[in-house]
Design a protein that fits this description.
The complex is a heterodimer of chains A (334) and B (330). By secondary structure, chain A is of the alpha/beta class. Chain A is built from 12 helices and 14 strands. A 7-stranded mixed β-sheet of chain A has the order 3-2-4-5-7-6-12, sandwiched between helices. A 5-stranded mixed β-sheet of chain A has the order 9-11-10-13-14, with helices on both faces. Chain A has a two-stranded antiparallel ribbon with strand order 1-8. In chain A, strand 2, helix 2 and strand 3 form a beta-alpha-beta unit. In chain A, helix 1 packs parallel to helix 7, helix 3 packs parallel to helix 4 and helix 8 packs across helix 12. Chain B is of the alpha/beta class and 330 residues long. Chain B has a single domain, classed as Rossmann fold (3-Layer(aba) Sandwich). Chain B is built from 12 helices and 7 strands. A 5-stranded parallel β-sheet of chain B has the order 1-2-3-7-6, sandwiched between helices. Chain B has a two-stranded antiparallel sheet with strand order 4-5. In chain B, helix 2 crosses helix 3 and helix 6 packs parallel to helix 7. In chain B, 54% of the residues are buried. The model of chain B has no long low-confidence stretch (mean pLDDT 97). The chains are: A alpha/beta (334), B alpha/beta (330). Chains A and B meet through helix 3, helix 4 and helix 5 of A and helix 6 and helix 7 of B.
Chain lengths: 334, 330
């Protein structure tokens, strides 16, 4: 049976839950770990009801011990299990940096290829929920700096499911940054088991005047902006990055060669972020000679995420700011 | 005369093998130190000379399916668990034939096939990993236990407390073995640790905690034996604290400004290898000539190991990013 023929409308969080259920069903070495993922269903209800189907030995509530919990997942992955570890908020991964960066990412290399750490970390991420500075960050770029990790950002329900299944099939540690505002977003999702390839960007809208590279929720904002720009004759190509480590250089370069204008939109703090990496990569490539304008980065303000809703909105790229920036770029006003 | 636990519990050939491995650890580390002085090994290393009974007696009952996690002072654990000193030297020399193909060195020495999940450059880094290995055993229905070696310094890391708590909550088959050599680098346990005995920390996590003379082979073996039995019976984790001493400095940069010559000399009098050797002779497990033969054999292994390492090829420069990720299948 071709899974792709059977599409259902479901939310991003339902799609993630379905992926976990498929994995738990198919592979007895898969376990879920995290804070309040059992009867509570997780802070964002993503694991809801899984404990009823698979029991507390496979859907394990951990104490509030991010460092220890992540390390247990790493040790379990090293010795035969495939843990999916949920951080309640991506911000809390900072408590576990040691185990993610010093251990999980480096074990295969330090041991000369003699060890494998097939752990998946799920990280609810991003702003827009009024949760302020310690519950709203977008820190995926930090992990982009770490060889040994893979770092994914699904923007659709279909990808959220396919990326989680691909992460589980991967023998190395994978971090999946899920956007909290996308959990309720609906989309068509294929039934059954399928893999979204890791490291392959998706062109979500074709265009000829300007390339907008975005990830996660910024893809949707960029698409909305592109739609408005189309009304005034500006044709924007929107690339969904999907994976920031590895980055799909080829898709970005091909698009830049076509449009001659590049803008990178991301929710992390603008400085030292995904935009810096992509613009540098383009500058170092053969696509540089195709540029007709400076590369533009649109990222978060140089501040912690604020509480006040107007400030919070203003702190990260929105449809109107993306639209305005793309217009300036298309008109060569930068 | 009371017969020590180890003598009455283990077969003579097991005890002789244990003595051999203790000599192997000592001679290996002396050989590594000498090779460092000659410029054959770069970087740094943390020697466990003086702590051999703790490593060997802890591992005496472990099989290859049982796991250990080790520390930055991990050469002894690696040898005690069954590693080959030739491949260890090759690793220290940065060679492709080393256990980590020259990517890890002293601080990441490992031998996954004999159950050594690796030394660790981060104090406390191995503790949660050991708990994870024990979780695997329990979930996969395997009878293996995991021994988690750590030093006194690690007992003040958050990872220690989180790990003991989770191991106890989930009743996991893990044995936390603290090698308390009195100093975390230069800071004594008296100045760093609020409890008098690190084993006292066990009470906070509802597990048995016992402190033993870590230079007494039999005392360590007995304490760990009971902890392993408890773990294999599904009753959960234990904490064993081995009081010991490192004769050498923390690492190659140490100038021993925080302890006296007298203190070092006093501990050298309590040489764990000499004590174990005398005990084996006293109980007729071997004679003086037999002990000498074991010592000579260990020396020969070490010399052969160094020659193997010297003759081994270095990794290709073009392979600097190899092993970052799994290699594509097919």
């Amino acid at each position: 049976m071709n899974a792709m023929t059977d599409l259902r409308l479901m939310t991003y969080s339902e799609a993630i839950r379905e992926a976990m259920a498929i994995a738990l069903e198919a592979d007895p070495t898969v376990i879920l770990m995290g804070e309040d993922i059992g009867v509570y269903g997780g802070a964002f209800q993503v694991t809801l009801d899984l404990i009823d189907r698979f029991g507390p030995d496979r859907v394990m509530d951990t104490p509030i011990s991010e460092l220890g919990g992540a390390g247990v997942a790493v040790g379990a992955a090293l010795t035969g299990l495939k843990p999916i570890f949920e951080f309640q908020f991506s911000d809390f991964a900072m408590l576990a940096m040691e185990q993610i960066v010093n251990q999980a990412a480096k074990l295969r290399y330090m041991l000369g290829g003699e060890a494998s750490v097939p752990v998946v970390f799920r990280l609810p991420s991003g702003s827009g929920t009024g949760a302020a500075a310690q519950h709203s960050q977008s820190i995926e770029a930090w992990f982009g700096h770490v060889p040994g990790l893979k770092v994914l950002q699904p923007s659709t329900p279909e990808d959220a499911k396919g990326m989680l299944l691909a992460a589980l099939a991967d023998p190395d540690p994978v971090m999946i940054f899920e956007h909290k505002l996308l959990y309720k977003m609906k989309g068509e999702v294929p039934a059954g088991h399928y893999l979204t390839p890791i490291g392959k960007a998706a062109i979500r809208r074709e265009g000829t005047d300007v390339t907008i590279v975005a990830g996660s929720i910024m893809v949707h904002r960029a698409l909305e902006a592109a739609e408005k720009l189309a009304a005034e004759g500006i044709s924007a190509e929107v690339i969904d990055l999907r994976s920031i480590r590895p980055i799909d250089h080829a898709t970005i370069l091909a698009s830049v060669k076509k449009t001659g204008r590049l803008m990178v939109v991301y929710e992390g703090v603008k400085a030292f972020g995904v935009g810096a990496e992509i613009s540098a990569m383009v500058s170092e490539s053969e696509a540089f000679d195709f540029l007709d304008a400076p590369i533009l980065r649109l990222g978060a303000a140089d501040a912690p995420v604020p509480y006040n809703p107007d400030l919070e909105r203003a702190a990260v790229p929105q449809v109107d700011t993306i639209e305005a920036a793309a217009r300036r770029l298309a008109r060569r006003e930068v | 005369m009371n017969i020590p636990f180890a003598i009455r519990t283990y077969a003579p050939e097991i005890l002789r093998e244990a003595l051999k491995r203790m000599y192997l650890i000592r001679r290996f580390e002396e050989g590594a130190e000498d090779s460092y002085m000659r410029g054959l090994i770069h970087g740094t290393m943390h020697l466990s000379i003086g702590q051999e009974a703790s490593a060997m007696a802890t591992c005496i009952e472990l099989g290859d399916n049982d796991k250990i996690t080790s520390t930055h002072r991990g050469h002894g654990h690696c040898i005690a668990k069954g590693a080959d000193v030739g491949r260890m030297f090759a690793e220290f020399f940065g060679k492709e034939t080393g256990y980590c193909h020259g990517r890890g060195g002293s601080m990441h020495i490992a031998d996954v096939k004999t159950g050594n999940l690796g030394a660790n450059g981060i104090v406390g880094g191995g503790l949660p990993i050991a708990v994870g290995a024990a979780l695997s055993a329990k979930r996969l229905g395997r009878p293996d236990v995991t021994v988690c070696f750590f030093g006194d310094g690690a007992n003040n890391e958050g990872a220690f407390h989180e790990s003991l708590n989770m191991a106890a909550v989930w009743k996991l088959p893990v044995i936390f073995v603290c090698e308390n050599n009195g100093y975390g680098m230069s800071t004594s346990t008296a100045r760093s640790t609020a409890v008098k005995r690190i084993a006292d920390r066990a009470a906070g996590y509802s597990m048995p905690g016992v402190t033993v003379d870590g230079n007494d082979f039999s005392a360590v073996a007995e304490a760990v034996h009971h902890a392993i039995a408890r773990a294999r019976a599904g009753e959960g984790p234990s904490l064993v604290e081995n009081l010991t001493y490192r004769w050498r400095g923390h690492s190659k940069s140490d100038r021993n400004r925080y302890r006296t010559k007298e203190e070092i000399a006093e501990w050298m009098e309590r040489d764990p290898i000499a004590r174990f050797r005398a005990e084996l002779i006293a109980h007729g497990v071997l004679d003086e000539a037999g002990a000498n033969a074991i010592e000579t054999q260990a020396q020969a292994y070490v010399e052969a190991g160094i020659e193997f390492a010297k003759a081994s090829p270095a990794p290709g420069i073009g392979d600097v990013t190899r092993y970052v990720y799994a290699e594509a299948q097919g």
